[in-house]
Amino acid sequence: MATPNHIRHYTANNPGIMTLKGTNQYVVGKESVVVIDVALGEDSNLDGIIEQVEAMGGKRIEKILLTHIHSDHCGGALALRKRSGAKLGIHRSRAGYLGGEDFQYGDNDRIAFGGGELQVLHTPGHESGHCCFYESGDRVLFSGDNILGYGTAVIRPPDGNMTDYLQSLERLLGFNISLILPGHGPLIGKAEAKIKEYIEHRMAREKQVLDALRRGRNTIGDITEMIYVGVSPALQRVAEFSVQAHLEKLIREGRVKREGGRYLLFKDD
Ligand SMILES: [Zn+2]
Which of 31, 127, 156, 255 is deepest in the core (most CB within 10 A)? Predict the structure, then answer.
């Protein structure tokens, strides 16, 4: 599945266990271009983005949009704004976070670029102000960290919220998407299958958490140990966050209660 001609990306040089090969920074449009996410403010990174703009005939960067406020997505936004003169936008729940934004956007807002427009989809879960951007012309979804090229998104409470995350994924299933361009990792051609796989993965984890509770495991550490067998030390904390996020979802649903540091099944069905 090829990317449409008016979309290019430059992957920032910030590889890591969470960022995979680095953050994908997208440039979208003809002549007047929108940039989605800027990870690093170093000249070499900004050069990389601007080269992509020029390579597709872009004349100017009109706007910079952010999928969310984690530093691997917004760390270079102010630097690119300064260098290019572009207007920087941020989700309205995060207004003032960077201290140099020019405009705010909210769910279902339309943001124009040369040759089309992006629909803002507020998709909390990974981060409460997280947004995906949908381009209906080519049915492309810029998914930020909601859906990754491989692996799964990190849901880290309290700002990360599993209930919201699953609702965001369900909502995305309602869009006609032919291509997902993620914040990390390679593009995804089979969009619907990927989103369903993501939902099924979380529901399978939830079942495992419930099963661990039934077997008398009742702390985050104990449950994580039972479910994530042989997880690398580097990912241990991430696994615990995930278990915590599932437990909090179950509490909201009245299925689990918390007593001190222990989690107990409230009603089993
Ligand atoms: Zn990220």
Answer: 127
Distance 153 CA to ligand 1 centre (A): 9
**Each residue's pLDDT expressed in tens, for the chain with a length of 269 residues:** 678 889 999 999 999 888 889 999 999 999 999 999 999 999 999 999 999 999 999 999 999 999 999 999 999 999 999 999 999 999 999 999 999 999 999 999 999 999 999 999 999 999 999 999 999 999 999 999 999 998 899 999 999 999 999 999 999 999 999 999 999 999 999 999 999 999 999 999 999 999 999 999 999 999 999 999 888 888 899 999 999 999 999 999 999 999 999 999 986 55
Phi, psi torsion values for 210, nearest 5 degrees? -65, -40
Longest dimension (CA), the chain: 62
CA 114/CA 62 separation, integer angstroms: 9
Could you tell me the distance, in angstroms and rounded to a whole number, from the CA of residue 55 to the centre of ligand 1?
Answer: 25
CA of 48 to the centre of ligand 1 (A): 18
The structure tokens listed for 247 are: 């437990």
Report d(CA 113, CA 266) in Å as an integer: 51
Ligand 1 centroid vs 192 CA: distance in angstroms?
A: 21
Closest residue by Cα to residue 50 from 75, 73, 7, 84 = 84
For residue 23, report the distance from its CA to the centre of ligand 1, in Å. Answer: 6
Distance 183 CA to ligand 1 centre (A): 6
For the question of whether the overall pTM of this predicted structure is more than 0.85, the answer is: yes
